[in-house]
Inverse folding.
């Protein structure tokens, strides 16, 4: 008993939002200590790690044949186990500097639709990366906790968490997920749609980073009252020369219409399958929008208009999930029921 208390005192526990696009780490005493892209740059010759995180993301679309930039997470789950393990190890060492006698305990958030095999892969990657114990929490539950929703009460709370690889829609009541749906349409799909739109309309190839920049600057789910534009540079397909065009928010809105409608449809399906008692709570309290996708201009208005619901965007949607995951670390006894392993 004494040893277990000493271990708990000396260890540096971590909460991790292991996302398709970004990985965030939270420590009880330091808050959010890391927010970096989930990208690893490897040497094609010997698989040696050349860069991780932000530095590696700069390599996307710019690497020679001798370097490969890899995103080891796909659709919210591990696509490349070995590279994920390397990435997690790197991030842990970055935030826990110097000699640390006790391995950290980790809480990692995962999509609601995760399979037992995928769940095991996340746990194993955390353990092999240096954690002494790995607990899992579903992303919408973590988002609800991070936003301060009364999850332990017999009330229906609806959360829509839009990440890079998945959109998680869940109704939460009594510290449990009453209904959930995980659709593999989110920020990455929007980026792909923008790339296809630019290629079809302007015969121009743009990279993933450029598409994401365009989405952040002028992306909108609905055409804006005050139009925004952004200059876009890429490769002209006709002769391979550089080309530059001006893109408006209306064009981006048209480009991402399909993935945005898929997200709205997922929210609609969740409402259809939610018990009447919980629906009345959702009508009163509204829907919480979290994740990076929650920053898309006009998305809250579109969902509210289509489904006749009040939609509230969290104050810091990019960090809602990791903040909630971190809160459970501070009081594991209170939140013991929310862990799914």
């Amino acid at each position: 008993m004494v040893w277990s208390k000493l271990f708990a005192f000396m260890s540096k526990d971590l909460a991790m939002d292991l996302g398709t696009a970004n990985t965030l780490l939270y420590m009880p005493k330091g808050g959010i200590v890391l927010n970096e892209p989930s990208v690893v740059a490897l040497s094609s010759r010997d698989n040696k790690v050349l860069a991780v995180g932000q530095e590696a993301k700069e390599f996307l679309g710019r690497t020679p044949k001798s370097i490969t930039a890899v995103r080891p997470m796909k659709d919210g789950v591990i696509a490349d186990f070995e590279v994920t393990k390397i990435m997690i190890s790197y991030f842990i060492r970055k935030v826990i500097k110097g000699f640390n006698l006790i391995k950290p305990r980790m809480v990692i958030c995962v999509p609601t639709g995760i399979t037992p095999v995928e769940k095991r892969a996340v746990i194993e990657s955390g353990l092999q990366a240096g954690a002494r114990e790995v607990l899992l929490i579903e992303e919408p539950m973590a988002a609800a906790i991070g936003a301060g929703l009364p999850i332990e009460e017999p009330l229906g709370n609806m959360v829509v968490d839009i990440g890079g690889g998945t959109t998680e829609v869940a109704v939460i009541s009594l510290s449990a997920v009453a209904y959930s749906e995980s659709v593999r349409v989110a920020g990455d799909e929007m980026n792909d749609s923008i790339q296809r739109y630019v290629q079809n309309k302007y015969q121009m190839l743009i990279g993933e980073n450029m598409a994401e920049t365009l989405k952040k600057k002028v992306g909108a789910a609905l055409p804006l009252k005050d139009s925004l534009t952004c200059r876009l540079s890429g490769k002209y397909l006709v002769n391979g020369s550089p080309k530059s065009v001006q893109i408006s928010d209306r064009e981006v809105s048209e480009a991402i219409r399909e993935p945005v409608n898929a997200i709205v449809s997922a929210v609609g399906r969740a409402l259809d399958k939610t018990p009447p008692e919980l629906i009345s709570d959702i009508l009163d309290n509204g829907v919480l929008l979290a994740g990076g996708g929650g920053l898309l201009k006009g998305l809250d208005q579109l969902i509210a208009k289509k489904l006749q619901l009040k939609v509230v965007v969290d104050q810091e949607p990019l960090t809602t999930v990791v903040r909630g995951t971190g809160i459970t670390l501070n009081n594991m006894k209170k939140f013991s029921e929310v862990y799914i392993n």
